[in-house]
Amino acid sequence: MHSEKSMLFVVACALIDADRRVLIAQRPADKNMGGLWEFPGGKLEAGESPEQALIRELREELAIDTQEACLAPLTFASFSYENFHLLMPLYVCRKWQGTPQALEHQALKWVRPQKLRDYAMPPADEPLIAHLCDLL
Ligand SMILES: Nc1nc2c([nH]c(=O)n2[C@@H]2O[C@H](COP(=O)(O)OP(=O)(O)OP(=O)(O)O)[C@@H](O)[C@H]2O)c(=O)[nH]1
């Protein structure tokens, strides 16, 4: 059946540290899906490639710098929310400069992939966890 839902394209990143832990970030309480834990990232701005958008988002949200060569595509989420359909590639990144800080989130947490299910995440993210467990 034809759907009138708009497609929302969001890029996200699993930062991986030397202990094979993944960084998740808690959404602000006053936002849509507030309090849930997500992978850093966001929407593309006009003219940006997905990788450029992710590098910008990581700088804005976490105050870290990385390069395109350090972003490896892992999988993607495709999920129908009530008002839009989310298409969200998930990259992994193991190399960056700086220490992640929660500039736009309530909190940050380094978590072993097998423990990600202990954290409430947006429903679109749930299928991504198995891919991270396989990788790590
Ligand atoms: N960054 C990120 N967004 C996600 C994830 N999972 C998921 O469903 N989303 C959804 O994708 C959209 C991301 O948009 P965003 O981060 O640029 O914007 P936002 O909702 O925080 O608010 P904004 O529009 O004020 O910037 C939100 O609807 C968010 O709920 C995830 O793991 N990471």
Order of helices and strands, N to C? EEEEHEEEH
Ions and ligands:
8-OXO-guanosine-5'-triphosphate
Largest sheet: 4 strands, mixed
Distance between the first and last residues' Cα: 39 Å
Number of helices, where a helix is a run of at least 4 consecutive DSSP H or I residues: 2
CATH topology: Nucleoside Triphosphate Pyrophosphohydrolase
Q: What Rg, in angstroms, do the CA atoms define?
A: 14 Å
Uncertain ranges: none
The top-level CATH class is: Alpha Beta
The CATH homologous superfamily corresponds to Nucleoside Triphosphate Pyrophosphohydrolase
Q: Going across the biggest sheet, name each strand in turn.
A: 4-1-6-5
CATH architecture: Alpha-Beta Complex
How many domains make up the 3D coordinates? Answer: 1
Strand content: 25-35%
Shape: globular
Overall number of strands: 7
